[in-house]
Design brief:
243 residues, six-stranded mixed sheet
């Protein structure tokens, strides 16, 4: 279903300085009343302050008396259907208050609602290390967001230096040196979502890409130097075990 695009957090001079107005909508553009939410202030030192509120009948609430600091980032979070939702980060200053609009979806953990595509970019590196960029994009069908806190976006066995690429940072969390990432929050329906990662792989002159996709792949491709040769070794007929 087509939905109106919500603007990112923005300064409104009609709002008092030190206030954040939060408006919540559901998949049908209807206001969500009685929803708990938190405005979070995170200082450069790591100190966190939280300001709790509940949305009114029109789905909105104005949170007052929030300290305005240039060295702090702010965001809004709300748990809806046991799934964590978070707004984009924003700053606050003396020009006015902040207007934050968020859409909260009911969720599903059914992987069959997702169509996915993967593209590998293999770059020759030094010391027999190949840099592998795994561009992974997904689309959720229907009116529910996909949420599975146990889902892992993994690298190949034996890889090192696993990292979440910048386009995916809004959706993936990476814990220190773990060779995988987990979902930061629900994947919304109807939009192309980037879950791309990268890692290094030691080789002896050849690299065998072997990866079990968590969703049904509708397309897989490889970008490579023209000096390299690509051959297909194996493809499983099962979407959940496709390699």
């Amino acid at each position: 279903a087509k939905r109106s695009a919500l603007p990112p957090p923005r300064i409104l001079r009609t709002l008092a300085t030190g206030t954040v107005r939060v408006s919540l909508r559901d998949a049908s553009d209807q206001p969500i009343a009685g929803q708990n939410l938190i405005v979070v202030k995170k200082a450069a030192t790591g100190a966190v302050e939280k300001f709790r509120a509940v949305s009114g009948p029109d789905g909105s609430v104005t949170v007052k008396d929030i300290p305005v600091r240039q060295d702090s980032l702010y965001f809004v979070e709300s748990a809806y259907g046991k799934a964590p939702y978070q707004s984009s980060f924003f700053g606050m200053d003396d020009r006015g208050g902040i207007d934050v609009q968020m859409r909260l979806f009911e969720t599903t953990s059914d992987p069959s609602v997702i169509r996915a595509a993967v593209q590998y970019d293999i770059v020759e590196g030094e010391n027999d290390l190949a840099q592998i960029i795994q561009v992974f994009e997904v689309m959720v069908d229907g009116d529910k967001a996909f949420w599975d806190p146990e889902l892992r976006i993994e690298s190949m066995d034996g890889s090192k230096g696993f990292t979440v690429l910048r386009p995916a940072e809004a959706f993936l969390d990476h814990d220190e040196k773990a060779p995988y990432a987990t979902l930061h929050g629900p994947i919304p329906p109807g939009t192309l979502t980037n879950l791309s990662t990268g890692y290094l792989f030691e080789h002896d002159g050849s690299v065998q890409l072997q990866w079990v996709a968590p969703f049904d792949l509708v397309q897989a491709s490889v970008l490579q130097d023209e000096r390299l040769e690509l051959c297909l070794l194996y493809t499983s007929p099962s979407p959940r075990d496709r390699q």
